[in-house]
Design goal:
elongated, 3 helices, three-stranded antiparallel beta sheet
Length: about 90
């Protein structure tokens, strides 16, 4: 697993500035500061999306899934792991 802060991550609005913060739930450590709420929500969903992609990849090993989907999942997971895509 990549060395990222485990989820869940949450979005908090800065009431003094036009920013949204992404942080680990029940933590005051900010992971990202963005000026768009939709982007903040997408970033906050990253740990859940990562787990889902890993689960789908594992499921693909047992089922005959469309090769394009498997390639797409591999491309995303390789990017997360900092690996080159072929």
């Amino acid at each position: 697993m990549p060395d990222f802060t485990p989820g869940p991550w949450v979005v908090e609005k800065d009431n003094l500035h036009p920013f949204f913060y992404v942080s680990k739930e029940k933590s005051k450590t900010f992971l990202a500061t963005v000026n768009n709420e939709a982007n903040a929500r997408l970033i906050a969903a990253a740990p859940v999306m990562y787990k889902i992609l890993c689960d789908i990849r594992e499921w693909c090993e047992y089922d005959d899934l469309d090769a394009d989907i498997e390639d797409d999942i591999a491309e995303v997971l390789n990017a997360i792991h900092g690996e080159e895509n072929n």
